[in-house]
Amino acid sequence: MPDEDAIPTVCTQMPYRVSIIIRNYNYSTYVSDAIDSALAQTYTNVQVIVVDDGSTDASRVVIHHYAPQCEIVLQENGGEGAAVNAGVAAANGDIIIILDSDDVLAPSAAAVLAALWRPDLSRVHYPMWVMNHGGMVSEELKPRHMIEPLELGAYLHRFGEVPSGALSCNAYAASALRRILPMDPVRWRSASDGYLNALTMAQGSFLSLRTPLGAWRRHATNWTLRNSTKIGSTGFAVVAHTQLHADVRKFVGEDKWAEMNAKLPVYHWLHRLFSRRLNPDHPFEDDRLLDLAGHCVSAIAVRPNTSFLRAAMLYAGVATGVLLPRAFLRTILAPSVRLARRDSRSVRIRPREEKHWRQAFSEIK
């Protein structure tokens, strides 16, 4: 549970301006919490922007009540990428936080970030406490483990992707965002955090904090679930990760990408293999199916600490990607989401002492 020692003491000088962009789509139930938390920052050099991405519920009625206190951007529905593009275009801060409208910030979040910021930083990651549909906060964190502060190439080498936690768990240098935006709103209608995290890390230093700076809401009506593609949530992840690698390649250039490409793990090649089969707009135009399979096999052979069973499963995955008809692949990569669609109020968080986020944050000195 948040306590007075959870947020470090910060300096009173305010050399950096912090822009908090709240991205909303049909979250009229939650958006006022997000705005209230942004307006309650103890750091006063803050700009609050609310981007409504074509909501059809009562969101805009709620948002308009805050018109004198924050900047409001209204647009037709275009997805995550379009909302981020619009918010950053309106921002005038040096540090940018993109807060999902179902999450909230701790009162000292902007102050902590401004106090530790330095010119070489392009991204700072921090955990958030987990809260439920009703805003009750527990000691569980999102993500559960601290993200190791590696550089981009090392992350891609070890994991094949860039861990992010959640979009709300990150702050970015405005200068880094402007070099990579606007992002393609069609390609990044969802999973835009991967694009932002990877391409900002390609530009500067990455810092990972242990201190939670807000609360992330766990519920079953999240945007990504409602907008998953026809190939299923797992298939969508495969396509999104492959698109991200293509965007990294374009941004860092062929020489740097060739260096990264030589060290990429088996999961990168499996993603590209399945994307080549499933995605008609596969972004690596020169990919050949058998070449990708060969990269997979080579990566499995040199993968450290891989048991016989794990290796056999990976080889089976390669064979599946090459041999199965496309229709069967789509079925395999579309796991059931019935459990995730249960009533959001039944989603449980860790059964420890709980407080509402407003009470929990008010106790932080």
List the helices and strands and how they pair.
Elements: E1 18-24, H1 31-39, E2 46-53, H2 59-64, E3 71-75, H3 80-90, E4 95-100, E5 104-105, H4 109-116, E6 121-125, E7 128-131, E8 136-142, H5 152-159, E9 170-173, H6 174-180, H7 192-201, E10 205-208, E11 214-217, H8 223-226, H9 232-252, H10 254-261, H11 266-278, H12 289-301, H13 308-323, H14 326-332, E12 355-356, H15 357-362
Parallel strand pairs: 1-2, 1-4, 2-3, 6-10, 7-11
Antiparallel strand pairs: 4-9, 5-11, 6-9, 7-8, 8-12
From the coordinates shown, what is the CATH architecture of the largest domain? Alpha-Beta Complex
Q: State the name of the first-level CATH class of the largest domain.
A: Alpha Beta
* Approximate helicity band: 40-55%
Derived from helix and strand composition plus strand pairing, the structural class reads: alpha/beta
Give the helices and strands as they follow along the chain: EHEHEHEEHEEEHEHHEEHHHHHHHEH
The low-pLDDT segments are: 1-9, 227-232, 336-352
The separation of the N and C termini measures 14 Å
Gyration radius (Cα, Å) is 21 Å
CATH homologous superfamily of the largest domain - what is it? Spore Coat Polysaccharide Biosynthesis Protein SpsA, Chain A
Tally of alpha and pi helices: 15
Brief descriptors of the model:
365 residues; Spore Coat Polysaccharide Biosynthesis Protein SpsA, Chain A; five-stranded mixed beta sheet; 15 helices; 16% strand
Tell me about this structure.
- This protein has two domains: 18-224 and 353-362, Spore Coat Polysaccharide Biosynthesis Protein SpsA, Chain A (Alpha-Beta Complex); 232-332, no CATH class.
- The two termini are 14 Å apart.
- Helices cover 40% and strands 16% of the residues.
- By secondary structure, it is of the alpha/beta class.
- Residues 1-9, 227-232 and 336-352 have low confidence and may be disordered.
